[in-house]
Amino acid sequence: MNTVEPIREMDLVLDVADYLKSKNERDHVLFLFGIYTGLRISDILKLRVRDVREKDYVYIRENKTGKEKRFPINTELKPVIVNYIQGKKDFEYLFKSPNFPNKAISRQQAYNILSEAGKAFGLSSIGTHTLRKTFGYHMYQQTHDAVTLKDIFNHSHMSETLRYIGINQDNKDKAIMGLSFKKGGRK
Predict the structure, then answer these.
(1) Dihedral of CA 129/138/120/168: which sign?
(2) Is 70 an active-site residue?
(3) pLDDT tens-digit readout, 122-153
């Protein structure tokens, strides 16, 4: 299994979102939902329209941990969701499969959507966890609050969170690039 990375460049995040919007509204909303909530794809795919309609918060029981989780619907995401669910029935899956009357897209289909979008922008280490990692990476860049991220991700250790969102790798890359053996050091 290949390691997936967050999308670090904000312009690239916006480009991928625009690309998906031009292809398919569902895929665009799936991408935005992932980067704005930081939920695992398995938890996103089980959501139904009723879970988000006229809500400020969404309550779930995480698939992986079994823990209950409440998360707010970000103010930038909310109008996207309101527009997307217009005309949809409460019982419908939020990210419905076109091949089945009332079934969500599969995890594999979500991966295919993201992988194809990534390839369009030369991103090779992209997968379903990219959404969660992108959420974490940009939240950390904007807040520098690793403690809250650790809580959101239910990680045991801060180092796990920083490694997960790619901050450790960024720091290692920066340190190595700054290394100099010239007399007087790097200028």
Answers:
(1) negative
(2) no
(3) 998 899 999 999 999 999 999 999 999 999 99
